[in-house]
């Protein structure tokens, strides 16, 4: 319809604009929406944002705040103050361990990332309020349409960078049912605010706080969306032209400080509330499972995590992730952290905070947990773990949103199953093939499986899709012909 209108207008008049008549917004758009420069500019802007929020440079104010929270607030002030109070009150060993090792260490491991997350949300709010994010949607529509996706799908993906729940709910603005379902199934791939602590943990512990780790997490998320769009669009249930995407590009303007602070606080407070409620409760459960074990046929406190109830539960399930490189003593810890991440993605870091607490005094750089994680994870296994937890099923709240928007248990389970299966396949390929290049992995049956899965993905990507033409296409053709 819009193509038809454009052709009619083209035959009626000609409008020429000289460079002198261009507004400031038009001049900026000549660069940021340029066919060749748009994506590089977007990547550089996102890299700059994550350098400031989570990098290790003189301008990385988010990292400075996180270091202070980890080193001083939860490294000295709160533990020492709580220890003094418990000693004064004569609190017993079990309760003292619950408060210090369960609540303070567990919740503190998550709250330590609050400064980085607040800085990140503040910078993203600037991009949204000034009008640049609308240009990103325009840029992505041109890119997404090449892969059978609509630009309208980018709006839920953009919202999901803050939280997956409103991102999934934003998909209801997509008119076509197949595009809406496809968007719901892929929105969980985008790193949300709850996944930022996981990225920050491994960026600091294994990758020297490189800003490229956070940037690559978004590249991986968008790549998973694109690859999934290509694959799924070739099946009959999703086949068809993407819905038209029309939106206004507002003029660039300076954002107001009050709106920026309100947006930042709203997102940040949501994160803090989850740390103070859901994560607090799960910290206590994790502390119990980690602190108690069956010794000589009875339940009692244990000092060694490897004989705890949590270790036993993790070892029962760890075999599932052996092909992903989760082996040795870290396997059960990684497994437990992954499953508790289904409660809330912040729980992954919270679980590591509980499991690795008490390994030594807090260092000057706040790397107590980082050092322990770095000892257990190589670069390849860290990427395997990171990718799986970024791409697998989202938290329970997001699963509930999927159920509400799908309004069908079959589609809900299919969405969750697809995300978990896709995450497992990608993580397996990354570890098995990546490990061959680094020398960490020897060629085995899992290597054969990895190459076979990679081949299968390529076949699904490049195979000819469903060729049926739906009623929408026939209707468009009829309208264009005047019938």
3D architecture notes:
By secondary structure, this protein is an all-alpha fold. The protein has one domain (2-6, 23-477). The chain has 23 helices and two strands. It has helices at 2-10, 24-32, 38-54, 61-89, 93-111, 114-130, 132-144, 154-159, 164-169, 177-187, 196-205, 211-233, 257-276, 278-291, 309-317, 330-340, 347-355, 368-376, 379-391, 396-406, 409-438, 445-462, 471-481; strands spanning 292-295, 298-301. Strands 1-2 form a two-stranded antiparallel ribbon. β1 (292-295) and β2 form a beta hairpin. α19 (379-391) packs antiparallel against α21 and α20 crosses α21 (409-438). It is globular. The relative contact order is 0.11.
Q: Brief description of this entry?
A:
By secondary structure, the chain is an all-alpha fold.
Topology:
Elements: H1 2-10, H2 24-32, H3 38-54, H4 61-89, H5 93-111, H6 114-130, H7 132-144, H8 154-159, H9 164-169, H10 177-187, H11 196-205, H12 211-233, H13 257-276, H14 278-291, E1 292-295, E2 298-301, H15 309-317, H16 330-340, H17 347-355, H18 368-376, H19 379-391, H20 396-406, H21 409-438, H22 445-462, H23 471-481
Antiparallel strand pairs: 1-2
Helix pairs in contact: 3-6, 3-12, 4-5, 4-6, 5-14, 5-17, 6-13, 10-21, 11-12, 11-18, 13-14, 14-17, 15-16, 16-17, 19-21, 20-21, 21-22
User: What is the mean predicted local confidence, pLDDT?
Assistant: 81
Structural class: mainly alpha
Distance between the termini: 13 Å
Q: Biggest sheet: strands side by side, in what order?
A: 1-2
Please count the helical segments: 23
- Summed up, the domain count is 1
As residue ranges, the low-confidence spans are 358-366, 470-483
3D shape: globular
Beta strand count? 2
Main sheet makeup: 2 strands, antiparallel
The fraction of residues in strands falls at under 5%
> Can you give the helix content as a percent range?
55-70%
> What are the secondary-structure elements, in order, as H or E?
HHHHHHHHHHHHHHEEHHHHHHHHH
Radius of gyration over all CA atoms, rounded: 25 Å
